[in-house]
Amino acid sequence: MQNSETKICKNCKQNFTIEPDDFSFYEKLNVPPPTWCPDCRFVRRISFRNEINLYKRPCDSCKKQIISVYSAAAKFPVYCNSCWFSDKWSGSDYALDVNFSLPFLEQIKTLLDTVPHLALAQLKNVNSEYSNYSAENKNCYLVVSALQSEDCAYSARLFYSRDCLDCLDISNCERCYECIRVDKSSNSTYCSYSENLVDCHYCFDCRGLMDCFG
Length: 214
Hints:
The chain is an alpha/beta fold. Helices cover about 15% and strands about 30% of the residues.
């Protein structure tokens, strides 16, 4: 079995180690050892999914200025929600025959660079243009993965909440600030992994509290 080996990542120039078990795995797959570190490889794998970076650009169908997760430099056309769900175009117009003499992934790349992309994943929002992966929200700004929330901003994974700011992964909350993984709470700040809080601040892993601090 090959010994562990320390390499320099070609991307970030930091050292990373390949263990003997890793070498065995690569041999089994008949692929060469990686030249990028695990963190850089992870970033590369998820680079296709952009949730939080938003750009102003024209819709390639109606030409109106829109908000999109794709910049104007994108190779493929980008459509606003109205154009995307309209009958102006059909996905079958961009169909390609598989060419078995060419690498399959190259053909997928050609298809992805040609077919229109949806600017933002939104549904039935009101006054919440700067949001993504969101539905049935009202008066929300810079929220991602949000559902049926109102008057919220700068938050992600936000569900059935109102008047919340700078929160992550909360649901059924009202007037909360800087809370993480909190459920069914109100008037609380800097709380995490808790539920059923009222007027609580700096609480961790708590349940059913009122007027508590720290």
